[in-house]
Amino acid sequence: MEATIEPLDKAALPVNGRLLARQYHFPPTGDTDKDLAARIDHGGTGYWFPLKTANLDAAARKAGRIHEVVLKQGWATACRRFSRELIVSFEWCSNPILWTYTTIHTLVAARTSRHAPSAARRVIILEQDAGIRRALQWCVSQHPQFTVLACNSPGRFLHVSATQPPALVLLNRSLAERVGFDLSKGMTTLKPGVLALGYSVSVDGDQMFVSTPGGASGYLLKRVPPTAILEPFASAGRPPNFGRDDPLEIARSSFKELLRPRPDGGTRTVARLTPRENDVLALLSKGCVDKEIAQALGLSVWTVHGHIKKIFERMRVRTRTEAVVRYLEK
Length: 330
Prior knowledge:
The protein has 13 helices and twelve strands. The chain is of the alpha/beta class. The protein folds into three domains: 2-81, no CATH class; 86-259, 3-Layer(aba) Sandwich (Rossmann fold), CATH 3.40.50; 267-328, Arc Repressor Mutant, subunit A (Orthogonal Bundle). The strands form two sheets. Strands 5, 6, 7, 8, 9, 10, 11 and 12 form an eight-stranded mixed beta sheet that branches. It has a four-stranded antiparallel beta sheet with strand order 1-2-3-4. α3 links the parallel β7 and β8 (146-151). The two termini are 21 Å apart.
């Protein structure tokens, strides 16, 4: 859910003048579903920053500090010092598009790894961003059947994978070519018993939806909690045999529930909306921005924000794109 918080001193807010309540809880950070976040944009780059407080004044002050660091010391320093909210999409298959995705908060400090059982399969993560790398390590460690090692460079990855062979490699797809992996078709077998799964990182859900490649025969994107990023392996009902099982079949088994037709075709959730909320959503589906919706319906922009908040609550979605997709299913 996204909720615009209105009664704030706009001068205290960074750049775009808003704080939002975003229910993307990430357990290792100790935040709560009520904590606020701020979107900070500068120089063509922008991120959501969780503020770890539900207090409006404290949130505004922290957002101001982050903004000041961005202006004076640059994005690299800000990203090292403050946690960011990001979407990580795991690309199981490219045609049809079969992706799972989750929301993480980057971890700005190292964490103690759990002791994995001796029979756990090894996962190697290749990710250059330290905050993302630590967050993904935590996510993988929530699966008791896996143990995890993380590498911050292709050179380090090649060394570690040679000395401690993995069963699964998770790598940022922007680094795939640098280590000789072809992820154009999704998850792939590197050699007998070793799979490689690429992932992409997006600032928010809308950017993720837009970044999905065109031309596929179908699209299935499934949100999973950060504690279940390797859910497709678990949903098969037994530990996968990485040397024998077909990677594509592993992925498909996890998406079977999504492939079942919905009895209401989305109509039931849309029926919960008020007539005015339906009007707002109809204009959203046509690509209108808040100001255009306000002008078309004779409302203030703040009132449009309020309607969108209620739409998210009633439809149980978290982004405008998800709401529009649900609306178009009716």
